[in-house]
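F.,

This is the one I mentioned.
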């Protein structure tokens, strides 16, 4: 199974929920980083780490497939 088949194959429900949580984390961090006023450096650094974690969580969850 190549990567394109894996990405289009059905994803188990648990990993669908994890993928959605990852997308929510990435969206939250994008919102924080896009605020029109300055935040403390620790907050922007944390938002960057949350963006990476959310993207990895979503990407890994999408590649999980159901076994028959």
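My design for it:
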């Amino acid at each position: 199974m190549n990567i394109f088949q894996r990405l289009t194959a059905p994803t188990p429900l648990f990993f669908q929920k994890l993928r959605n949580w990852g997308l929510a984390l990435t969206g939250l961090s994008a919102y924080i980083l896009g605020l029109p006023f300055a935040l403390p450096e620790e907050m922007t650094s944390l938002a960057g780490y949350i963006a990476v974690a959310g993207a990895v969580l979503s990407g890994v969850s999408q590649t999980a497939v159901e076994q028959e």
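The longest helix spans residues 41-62.

Talk soon.
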